[in-house]
Design brief:
With 364 residues, the protein is mainly α. It is 69% helix and 2% strand. Helix 9 packs antiparallel against helix 14 and helix 10 packs parallel to helix 14. About 2% of the residues have low confidence.
């Protein structure tokens, strides 16, 4: 409980409140300048009338291409077959008219995702106050080491991710609701022209809940990754690795085509996972050993495996594990700890005195 209250200090809560205010304000400004960001009036009516024909043409084209000799085996054949089955399941879905401007604006608004990551990264940095104060070895020398503390902090990061989702996305949704209204959340997601190719029979409200959950998982996993990396390497090295990873994921998400043989790199990354409309605006299948695998299922499985690996690696690195009499894991943890401590520079007593006198008290 003390660790929780220390992390969620007044500084952290003030940062969250400030991000919520900025997020809502910018979203309202975007609403004023993008009131026609989605088809309305006659254009929307035309879309609603043509949607059943679109489904029929898509299923027929998939069946016709699947019968061609060039698509008899491999990823393309498997993908075409599953695309046809996915759209066949939408045969009873109906599309309805409504004011879609606020919903589309909220769905396509990306600044909230950035603010969510900023908030969680600030929480992660607050977990390393003991490193600044030179208390790392004091905490490590307690009975249970840093292992239990590590698991507690993982739970705190999960709570922080939920709090960020609730307030940041909640204030954004309320801003859109009071500007445009949010009628018809029980309509099918295909009622929004931007989701014409959505292969799932899901309502707009159901999509928003799925989107919030996926953003929670993605941001939580990103925060856990940064926490584990900061616990192993120095702060500068961790920042450099985080920047390179973010650039790699953004570039692969933007440059790799959805039907490419390398589309695993496009969809199995956190950037794409937090942009949830990627998975709902088209049929996404990953090319895994020549077979078409549902992109959403594969991504959730990859996130679960990644979380377990991060938890295991972090627990071994941050603390000691007492499991058996042979103490195999304990010895492994001790070796990893010693190796990582050599990588992360620690100030000596003389170094702390120079740092205090030279920098803090203005001697230099």
């Amino acid at each position: 409980m003390k660790e929780f209250t220390r992390v969620f200090s007044r500084r952290t809560l003030f940062l969250l409140a400030l991000l919520c205010i900025i997020n809502a304000g910018v979203l309202i400004l975007c609403a004023d300048s993008n009131k026609s960001s989605t088809p309305v009036g006659e254009e929307l009516e035309l879309y609603l009338q043509e949607y059943p024909g679109f489904l029929e043409r898509t299923m027929e084209n998939s069946r016709r291409m699947a019968r061609l000799n060039v698509y008899q085996s491999g990823f393309a054949s498997s993908r075409l077959e599953q695309v046809s089955d996915a759209y066949a399941s939408l045969e009873g879905v109906s599309v309805q008219a409504g004011d879609n401007r606020g919903l589309v604006l909220f769905i396509q608004y990306r600044l909230t995702d950035i603010f969510q990551i900023v908030f969680l990264f600030s929480v992660v940095m607050s977990l390393f106050d003991e490193r600044k104060k030179g208390l790392v070895y004091i905490v490590r020398s307690t009975k249970y080491g840093r292992g239990v503390l590590f698991l507690v902090r993982f739970c705190i990061l999960g709570i922080a991710a939920f709090v960020g989702i609730f307030f940041l996305y909640g204030t954004g949704f309320l801003s859109v609701y009071f500007t445009f209204g949010a009628e018809g959340l029980s309509r099918s997601l295909q009622s929004l022209p931007e989701f014409q190719k959505c292969p799932y029979a899901i309502t707009i409200g159901g999509y928003l809940l799925c989107s919030f959950f996926m953003k929670f998982v993605g941001s939580f996993l990103a925060a856990c990754l940064l926490y584990v990396v900061l616990g192993i390497f120095s702060r500068l090295t961790s920042y450099a690795m985080a920047i390179l990873l973010i650039l790699f994921e953004i570039l692969t998400a933007l440059w790799i085509e959805s039907i490419s043989a390398w589309n695993v790199l496009k969809y199995l990354n956190l950037y794409t996972f937090m942009q949830t409309d990627y998975y709902f605006t088209d049929c996404i299948f990953l090319n895994i050993f020549g077979r078409a695998v549902s992109g959403m299922k594969a991504t959730f499985i990859a996130c679960g495996i990644s979380f377990l690996l991060l938890a295991l690696i972090g627990f071994i690195v941050h603390g000691k594990m007492y499991v058996s009499n042979k103490k195999t894991l304990e010895k492994l943890a001790e070796k990893i700890r010693k190796f990582t401590e050599r990588l992360a520079p620690q100030r000596t007593l003389m170094g702390w005195e120079v740092y205090k006198l030279g920098l803090k008290q203005g001697a230099l």
